[in-house]
Design a protein that fits this description.
This protein is an alpha/beta fold. The chain contains 25 helices and 10 strands. The chain has an 8-stranded mixed sheet, with helices on both faces. Strand 4, helix 9 and strand 5 (167-173) form a beta-alpha-beta unit. Helix 10 packs across helix 12, helix 21 (407-416) crosses helix 22 (418-433) and helix 22 (418-433) packs parallel to helix 24 (464-474). It starts with 8 loop residues before the first helix and ends with a strand.
Length: 524
């Protein structure tokens, strides 16, 4: 690999003056989604995929292309005629009788020469018995249509320790499928929430307030007047309002309408869009800037207890503990300010000046926040944490199969989401009926009986059960290329979320129905 190819992603994406290297050009579009930190996490990841089926290789295709570091296909099976007919990552008739893992790895590796691929033809049973630590060495494990007994053993192994990798369980038959992510705890700093951080217009920091009050709107020419950022307009208008209303913010509907009219009255020309924008954003003036309820709830997390913090090695919770203390101690009782500003009607001079005010204040508050940290944390992580403090997420999962053991939860799910629950139950029934012998071809009656045993004999199945049972009985072994392709995209997307710790992964069982082209989640 050339020195240009091996240039560090962080350097390539921050060094604006230099031309992008080959790697950055290759991954340009995805770097816009998860940036250098996400790409670095992908490139250092090791993915284990159990089974070389059409669905498995479709999942891997969507992981190899964005550049995971390494993948291993664990599969002792030989390529069958059906494999050759539905798996695009086999050489058709020429692959029949050869190792399915080795054949798939060969073609998948051609998609991205920067990804290391390996085939392992051992059986999962032998590894679970003699080398379970090999499985736990991976970043994440994905299993497709695994035997029920083996799946339970694998799930139990990976649930033993919170440090062990997450397990993604994928099941499919015909046009129906579901998948589930088993994990202990998953913390997300960059959740990419659609909720924007507060601009703190109702509690302006001193420099912003002074800047807004220093402007003489009535002495500006029309060009300059038409490019005042709406943030400055609102801070100034709010200060003027408080002077004439005893320091109170607009409270009633009438007062708020009056405030908006006052903002529009500041126009000197009818086409000044910045004042129209200020009128639209006026709600920020009476919306109190405070710690979001979702973040406040995290401050009560058991992981922040004194006993837990003494043994917790996760920098996330040390950052969260510092954030809690910061919000309690700072004058405004708010999250640290972020320097990120939204687009707004303005000219370059005014926008950059406003951005500098926010950036300077954000840096001051970040330094104050860092003073509450009790352990050393990487500066880049601190920067990211402060920038995204308004949208932090902590998820805690459950072991695979917990939902099917909870009859009350199943009955409730049948009443609220009957179609999705029936598909899930039909797939579970198929897995149980084929336990120990995946060649068993169950009848519709046996599937219904097994579902009834799962939910309880007294529970009446909804009409949607007939469709799910019929499809599973029709095609218990069928792996359709379009189902495999659809699952490949969806599962790979969730795997990337888990690896990069960006965006929020699906909770519970994601159920796919390609007969009616719909998805849904249950058992969260």
């Amino acid at each position: 690999m050339s020195s240009q190819d091996s240039q560090d992603i962080e350097t390539a994406t921050t060094a604006i003056e230099s031309a992008p290297d080959t790697k950055t050009r290759r991954y340009d579009r995805q770097l816009r989604l998860w940036a250098a930190t996400g790409q670095s996490a992908l490139e250092s990841s090791r993915v284990l995929l159990i089974s070389g089926s059409a669905t498995s290789t479709s999942i891997l295709k969507n992981l190899v292309l964005p550049g995971i570091g390494h993948f291993t296909i664990l599969d002792h099976a030989k390529v069958s005629h059906s494999d050759a007919g539905n798996n695009f990552f086999l050489e058709g008739y020429n692959s029949i009788g050869k190792s399915r893992a080795e054949e798939a790895v060969q073609l998948l590796s051609e998609l991205n020469d920067g990804v290391e691929g390996r085939a392992d033809t051992r059986t999962l049973e032998s590894i679970l018995e003699s080398h379970p630590e090999w499985i736990t060495s991976f970043t994440i494990v994905v299993a497709h249509n695994l035997d029920h007994t083996l799946l339970n053993e694998l799930s139990a192994l990976l649930w033993k320790d919170a440090k062990y990798p997450p397990l993604v369980v994928v099941r499919s038959a015909g046009f129906l499928a579901d998948f589930y992510i088993q994990f202990h705890e998953h913390t997300i700093i960059e959740s990419h929430s659609e909720v924007s951080p507060s601009l703190r217009i109702d509690k302006p920091f001193p420099a912003l307030r002074e800047h807004a009050l220093s402007l003489e709107f009535d002495k500006m020419d029309s060009t300059e007047h038409g490019h005042i950022p709406y943030v400055v307009i609102l801070v100034r208008a709010l200060e003027d309002w408080k002077k004439s209303h005893g320091g109170s913010l607009p409270k009633s509907y009438e007062e708020r309408q009056q405030f908006k009219k006052g903002v529009l009255a500041l126009k000197v020309k009818g086409d000044e869009e910045n004042f129209d924008e200020a009128e639209t954003q006026a709600y920020r003036c009476w919306t109190e800037t405070k710690v979001p309820s979702e973040i406040t709830a995290l401050f009560s997390d058991p992981a922040l207890s004194t006993e837990a913090m003494d043994s917790n090695q996760s920098p996330f919770f040390h950052l969260l503990a510092a954030l809690k203390e910061y919000t309690e101690q700072c004058d405004t009782h708010t999250l640290p300010l972020t320097s990120t500003l939204p687009d707004m009607k303005s000219d370059t001079h005014n926008y950059i000046h406003l951005q500098r005010l926010y950036k300077t204040r954000a840096e001051e508050e970040k330094q104050a926040f860092k003073s509450y940290l009790r352990v050393p944390v990487d500066d880049a992580m601190v920067d990211s944490f402060v920038k995204n403090a308004h949208a932090l997420v902590v998820l805690r999962g459950k072991p695979w199969g917990t939902f099917d053991e909870d009859k009350a939860a199943l009955v409730e799910s049948l009443s609220t989401m009957p179609k999705e629950t029936c598909i899930h139950l039909a797939l579970s029934a198929l897995s149980l009926l084929q336990a120990g012998d995946t060649s068993v071809s169950p009848s519709a009656e046996s599937i219904r009986a097994k579902i009834q045993s799962i939910v309880g004999q007294s529970t009446e199945l909804p009409d949607e059960a007939d469709d799910a049972i019929g499809e599973i009985a029709r095609a218990p072994f069928s792996e359709l290329p379009n189902t495999a392709a659809f699952l490949g995209g969806m599962v790979a997307q969730e795997v990337i979320k888990m690896i990069t710790k960006q965006y929020v992964p699906v909770r519970g069982y994601c159920v796919i129905d390609l007969i009616e082209t719909c998805t849904g989640t249950i058992g969260a």
